[in-house]
Amino acid sequence: MTTSNKNSRFCFNNWVSNGTFSVSSSAAGYSADNLVSGIRSKVWQTGGLFEIDATNNKVYINATTYTVAVGSYTVATLITAFNAATSQTLSRNGAGKFVITLGGAGTFNFGTSTNAIWTALGFLSVADVAGTVATADERRYSTSEWIKVDLGFPQIANFAALIPPSNTAASFPTATISLQGNNTDTWAAPAVDLPMEVSSNGAFVAPDVTTSPCRYWRIKIVDVKNSALTAAVAYMGDSVINTNTNVATEFSRVRQDTSQRLSSEGGQLYIQRGPRVMTLSNMNVYFLKAQELTDMEQLVYDLGTGRPFFICIDPEQGVSSSLSQMTHYVEVEGDVTFSHVLASYYNLSFALREVL
What we know:
Blueprint: E1 9-14, H1 15-18, E2 20-23, E3 44-45, E4 50-52, E5 58-61, E6 64-67, E7 71-73, H2 75-86, E8 89-92, E9 98-108, H3 118-121, E10 129-135, E11 145-155, E12 159-163, E13 176-182, E14 192-195, E15 197-199, E16 202-205, E17 214-222, E18 230-231, E19 233-241, E20 252-257, E21 260-263, E22 269-272, E23 276-288, H4 290-303, E24 309-312, E25 327-332, E26 337-342, E27 345-354
Antiparallel strand pairs: 1-19, 1-24, 2-11, 3-18, 4-7, 5-6, 8-9, 9-10, 11-17, 12-16, 12-19, 13-14, 13-17, 15-16, 20-23, 21-22, 23-27, 24-25, 25-27, 26-27
């Protein structure tokens, strides 16, 4: 493994597909296996996870403190646990807001916030409220969601991504997403906690190559008001990075609309809509030698034709406005050519096509 932060990263060793991975929740019919199917039309959708721990498990009603058992809950099991702990009635309405109903007149002590469950349920008031029914200020579908891998031993992650189906905007444009790593499966204070850049293209991060090695890695997604959080591909892993050379300038990014213009006998024009595809052509890496030549030859051999991978062309955003602008989920199109230049130096030429 080389040690460069600015040079392009060829990311194909995906721990999510190669290792032991798990997810926080899955909706029926939207299995986590879809994240590693390689088919971007198949998606994983979250089912709604509520993680209740010692920092958010207290309920304050009528100047009495109740404690909800620590655990990971679905909406249904959280309602059951809340009702059992408080002897009151928690429900969620059609708008996605939690509702607490008391057995008689009383006071909701929203002003008491120490380790309170209020924010997790969407109650944002800082003042006590008298009455028999309280409806949350915001809808809540989870406290957080995650995708996690157990590598068995510590390794360095230098790329992570979460992307939507092709030709579709990400369903999490306002989410807070981070790449976390730790050497134990506990997450109160992970050894690595890096924010991921979030846009309509997905979520991406290209960490410093000296990031601490960890056994456990996860992508954490905080999007508590999102009822339909989906993703097509998840990546956490390492990559091949060349130190002495980079993808050369003057490559081309072409966005092709495969729609066809058709005309009737009377001359009326029609459009048969097809997907839009990006291709990357005139891709060259010059003056490969020694270990870097070996690494790239092995990469080409492992990828073959049709195996998708990520290419992160500008990880430090030296010439791009965002990480997602120059990061693509692609496959090799056509031949990959190693041309001898002089002595032990070779040039690499290839073309790529976006995976749909």
